[in-house]
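Work Package 4 report. The design task specified in the project plan requires that, given a folded chain encoded as structure tokens, an amino acid be chosen for each position. We show below one input record used in the internal validation round.
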């Protein structure tokens, strides 16, 4: 299946999920279909890692990213089970363990690529550097306030506060490599891998957006109050962008290999 066809399928999936959320007919149905995007991201990540092979440094990077997606999928599945099977919403729970473990896995995958390419932000022109610096400062300020300061509850237990603020800390850690991912994207500008890295960059932005909104409206979201359940659409976009970027990368690699082995006439 070519890249255009898969892109259309992913766009249709997002549109269908968004339609269900905006219709607001069944929160259980929303919970079920919400599991599809992280599952797709995991499968596509494994596909990309397998295409590169684990002996390849890119394969190792993709394997870590796929593992991060898998941990998110497990966390989402456990969250769904707590909410609709066991009918309780404990916090913290085992789901939080998998959510939080996903972040260092994603960080490891990104840092492998960053370390190999050694991008330097100083190579940007002054205007671009200023814009990126402004974005970085704004993201750090927003995440620090909503993800850490606002997430702290003086009436909650130490463990609950530690888990709640850990999400904000994880987001802060992810922000820096996000800037380097943007630099990687521009390093590949004009090439096919530009699209792959720019999708990963936006996937991370959607992930941060979902986390920030959740930290701001966690009570309303946990009580499944509309329109706060629409926060899920940020994570859906993130998972699907990660998933398609993995497929896109693997597809470009397979295409390149076919050209290299194609006999010359």
């Amino acid at each position: 299946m070519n890249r255009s066809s898969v892109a259309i399928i992913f766009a249709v999936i997002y549109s269908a999920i968004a339609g269900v959320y905006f219709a607001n007919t069944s929160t259980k149905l929303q919970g079920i279909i919400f599991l599809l995007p992280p599952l797709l991201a995991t499968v596509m990540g494994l596909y990309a890692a397998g295409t590169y092979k684990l002996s390849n440094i890119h394969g190792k990077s993709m394997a870590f990213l796929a593992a991060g997606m898998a941990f998110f999928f497990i966390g989402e599945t456990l969250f769904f089970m707590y909410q609709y099977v066991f009918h309780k919403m404990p916090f913290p729970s085992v789901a939080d363990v998998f959510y939080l473990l996903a972040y260092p896995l994603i960080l490891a995958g990104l840092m492998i690529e960053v370390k190999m390419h050694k991008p330097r932000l100083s190579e940007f022109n002054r205007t671009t550097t200023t814009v990126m610096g402004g974005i970085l400062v704004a993201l750090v300020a927003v995440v620090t306030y909503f993800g850490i300061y606002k997430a702290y509850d003086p009436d909650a237990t130490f463990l609950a506060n530690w888990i709640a603020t850990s999400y904000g800390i994880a987001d802060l850690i992810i922000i820096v490599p996000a800037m380097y991912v943007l630099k990687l994207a521009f390093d590949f500008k004009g090439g096919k891998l530009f699209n792959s890295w720019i999708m990963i960059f936006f996937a991370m932005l959607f992930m941060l957006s979902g986390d920030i909104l959740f930290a701001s409206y966690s009570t309303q979201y946990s009580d499944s109050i509309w329109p706060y359940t629409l926060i899920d659409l940020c994570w859906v976009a993130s998972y699907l962008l990660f998933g398609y970027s993995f497929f896109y990368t693997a597809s470009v690699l397979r295409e390149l290999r076919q050209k290299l082995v194609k006999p010359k006439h």
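The chain has a mean pLDDT of 84. Validation will be extended to a larger panel in the next phase.
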